[in-house]
Write a structure and sequence with these properties.
Elements: E1 3-4, E2 8-9, H1 16-35, H2 64-77, H3 85-101, H4 105-109, E3 116-117, E4 122-125, E5 139-142, H5 145-152, H6 179-189, H7 195-209, H8 213-220, H9 225-228
Antiparallel strand pairs: 1-2, 3-4, 4-5
Helix pairs in contact: 2-3, 2-6, 3-5, 3-7
Amino acid sequence: MLRQGKRKRKGVGLNPVSINNGLKTLQSIWNHAIRLGLYTGENPVTGVERFRTPKRLDQSFLDKEKVDALLDAALRYGDVKYVKRAEARNVYLAIALMALAGLRKGETCYSRWDWIDWPHRLLIVRNEEDFMTKNRKPRIISMHSQLMDILAAYRQEGGHILESTRTGEEKAEYRADFKKAFQQVCALADIETTPHQLRHSFATRHAIAGTSLHVLAGWLGHSTTWVTQRYAHFQTTYNTAADNI
């Protein structure tokens, strides 16, 4: 029997969520073509009606215990036979930056020591010659004390925090890709997660702790706070602001 998609019978078609995602991708492609000057008309996908699908609450995240377990596994990874020192160092610092500062994977790979304001405990994500933030804007993150301690042990006066793992003239999306090491560390910790899930967990833990979503939006580098609203449902404890009026 012929199948399509994820083991669907021929003729069943895609589900509404998949179609909406496809339209979103097409819209982004057209927008990119417009920015490059390859197309001068209006985006033909913008006016296409999308399916109305129910939103579900995402309750998955790594709590403090799991983040600590992952960091511990990253340290143990350095003792695994044939693992290079730079590889173990990179994945340990990368996990710390993503889970405790909410950095994206790309930001982590290009992070620099001079982004850190040690006296004021600030991490300033800046645009550089070899790196540009997602929204083209710099941002300031108040650093977790645990992250400060982790980075202080490896502190340098300048340069990138993660060592380059490129060899020769090979092409790579990131200057210090740690994909393989990250997967092996997850296996050591017996935790299934992704680099983006670490950033998501950073935001979720702050939302649960009562951190202002406006402040959190600034730390995450969200252009608008409506993107950060996805974490609002994690704020389940009573807020004394209810009696402010």
